[in-house]
Amino acid sequence: MSIGEKDLSIIDILVKDSRTPYVQIAEKIGLSEAAVRKRITRMQENGIIRKFTIDVEKDVLVRAICLITVDPARNTPEVSEELISAEGVEGCYELTGSYDVIAFLFGSDIKQLNNTIDSIRRVEGILSTNTSIVLRSW
């Protein structure tokens, strides 16, 4: 499904604050509240908007980036689906280059982050991981 400029504007607003009231979105982009509500519902039904989430203060959680090599005999999207369901995995993206997948990880402390990395390494088809702890973000 393709999306238009108004839908992109709605997404941009929701990415910045997923709790933005529909009335406020409508005022910003020049649509009625009902039109905004319908567009958001349609994007949810079509899988464009998958979830509404929160953004936690950066210093509260330990974050890491995990570069993953997948066994060529395994289907990378299937492995990624398994990874994204693991506790502490915020997102996964298939890559070009030396690694097949990048996973963004978080935990309340290093121990929890280590548990997440251990669970990733147990996924069938993972050949190797290379994890870096995020020291600072802006």
Radius of gyration using CA atoms only: 18 Å
Number of strands: 4
* Spatial gap, N to C terminus: 33 Å
- What do we call the CATH homologous superfamily of the largest domain? Lrp/AsnC effector binding domain/regulation of amino acid metabolism (RAM) domain
- Helix count? 5
| Helix share bin | 25-40%
Would you give the CATH topology of the largest domain? Alpha-Beta Plaits
Tell me about this structure.
The structure is a single chain. The chain is an alpha+beta fold and 138 residues long. The protein folds into two domains: 5-45, Arc Repressor Mutant, subunit A; 62-133, Lrp/AsnC effector binding domain/regulation of amino acid metabolism (RAM) domain (Alpha-Beta Plaits). The protein is 39% helix and 22% strand. It is built from five helices and four strands. A hairpin with a 6-residue loop joins strand 2 and strand 3 (101-107). The model has no long low-confidence stretch (mean pLDDT 90).
Concise account of the structure shown:
This protein is of the alpha+beta class and 138 residues long. 39% of the residues lie in helices and 22% in strands. 15% of the residues are buried.
Helices and strands in order:
Layout: H1 5-16, H2 22-29, H3 33-45, E1 62-70, H4 76-84, E2 89-94, E3 101-107, H5 110-121, E4 126-133
Antiparallel strand pairs: 1-3, 1-4, 2-3
Helix pairs in contact: 2-3
Task: List key phrases describing it.
138 residues, alpha+beta, Arc Repressor Mutant, subunit A, Alpha-Beta Plaits, 2 domains, four-stranded antiparallel sheet, 39% helix, 22% strand
